[in-house]
């Protein structure tokens, strides 16, 4: 197992980098980005610092890597936050200077396509933080969700344990980020049930690994930031899917490939994020959304029954693409207590 360290945390008043290692969407959609920057300053007391590619679309992978190097190497920067995800951060990884990053460990916050960089930092022995994108969580319409804000604040500033809580409502409807009216009202929230469990007869504590399932599949195909399977033995697997709404068949096939590789069987516990069931382009009905969630859950269960039948699984943990989102330490400790139906993370 790779030896992992928690980087020192920022303090209010510190300068933090805001980067776009995947997509420069802040340049196309400035409203949620500017709102997120304002909340970083006003609500969290931090000083956001942008870099040359933060608001630029179509820049090279080498240029985005250079921004990462500059942010990590700058001794006045105490944390690095992604603006949003994308779909090609995989191409940035070959341009990264591993020794520079290893010598300057800092908390990195991001999810979705940022699974690439989180896994890369994991390989260097640096705990990252899955969640907390500037445009999405900080730039949420109306106000930051209180569950998200509490988790982000704890992950940013407070070392130690943090107990996750189940929610009774969640958001799954994307709205137009180019329309100022979007940000004048709170997002629509729907009633939901809490977590559900499989094999909840034990307590597992281990280092986390995983992230967005679609991105993990790309990483596995390209053999980027992936260690031999037994490196992850005893860990807690994190899995969540995106607004691209992969079919149940695709979810099963990706997990089947991970099973064939010997990955699934390494994890005595897995946490599965609440499935996103709609997008800005796909407006599913309540019935279609419920069916999609059930089909995805069945696909996950089918793969684990075939490759890791003893793994404890908790479904509908709110760390993915739905709202609210809790931050998960990536490479940090996660305690999954089946008998108590409790999940505790260490920030």
From TrEMBL:
Q: Pfam families, alphabetically?
A: Peptidase_S66 (PF02016), Peptidase_S66C (PF17676)
Q: Which CDD domains match?
A: Peptidase_S66_mccF_like (cd07062)
Span-the-membrane segments of this chain are none
Keyword Lyase recorded: no
State whether keyword Protease applies. Answer: yes
Q: Where in the numbering of this chain does the LD-carboxypeptidase C-terminal domain appear?
A: 205-335
Family as reported in the entry's similarity comment: Belongs to the peptidase S66 family.
Task: Give the matching PANTHER family.
Answer: LD-CARBOXYPEPTIDASE C-TERMINAL DOMAIN-CONTAINING PROTEIN (PTHR30237:SF4), MURAMOYLTETRAPEPTIDE CARBOXYPEPTIDASE (PTHR30237)
**What protein am I looking at?**
LD-carboxypeptidase
Q: Which organism is it from?
A: Solihabitans fulvus
């Amino acid at each position: 197992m790779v030896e992992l360290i928690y980087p020192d945390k920022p303090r209010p008043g510190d300068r933090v980098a805001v980067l776009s290692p995947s997509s420069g969407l802040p340049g196309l959609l400035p409203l949620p980005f500017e709102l997120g920057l304002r909340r970083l300053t006003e609500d969290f007391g931090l000083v956001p610092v942008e870099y040359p590619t933060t608001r630029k679309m179509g820049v090279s992978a080498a240029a985005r890597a250079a921004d990462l190097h500059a942010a990590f190497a700058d001794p006045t920067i105490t944390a690095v936050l992604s603006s949003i995800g994308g779909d090609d951060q995989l191409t940035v990884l070959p341009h990264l200077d591993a020794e520079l990053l290893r010598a300057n460990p800092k908390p990195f916050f991001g999810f979705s396509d940022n699974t690439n960089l989180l896994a890369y930092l994991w390989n260097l022995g640096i705990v990252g933080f899955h969640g907390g994108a500037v445009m999405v969580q900080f730039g949420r319409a109306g106000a930051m969700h209180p569950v998200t804000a509490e988790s982000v604040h704890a992950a940013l500033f407070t070392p130690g344990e943090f107990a996750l809580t189940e929610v009774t409502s969640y958001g799954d409807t994307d709205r137009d980020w180019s329309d100022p009216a979007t940000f004048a009202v709170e997002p629509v929230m729907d009633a939901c049930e809490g977590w559900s469990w499989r094999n909840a007869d034990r307590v597992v504590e281990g280092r986390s690994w995983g992230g967005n399932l679609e991105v993990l599949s790309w990483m596995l195909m390209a053999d980027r930031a992936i260690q031999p399977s037994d490196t992850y033995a005893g860990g807690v697997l994190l899995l969540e899917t995106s607004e691209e709404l992969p079919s149940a068949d695709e979810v099963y096939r990706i997990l089947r490939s991970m099973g064939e590789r010997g990955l699934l069987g390494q994890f005595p516990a897995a946490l599965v994020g609440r499935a996103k069931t709609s997008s800005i382009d796909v407006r599913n009905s309540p019935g279609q959304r419920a069916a999609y969630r059930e089909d995805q859950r069945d696909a996950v269960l089918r793969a684990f029954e075939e490759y890791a039948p003893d793994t404890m699984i908790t479904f509908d943990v709110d760390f993915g693409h739905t709202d609210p989102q809790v931050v998960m330490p990536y490479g940090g400790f996660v305690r999954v207590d089946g008998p108590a139906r409790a999940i505790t993370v260490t920030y």
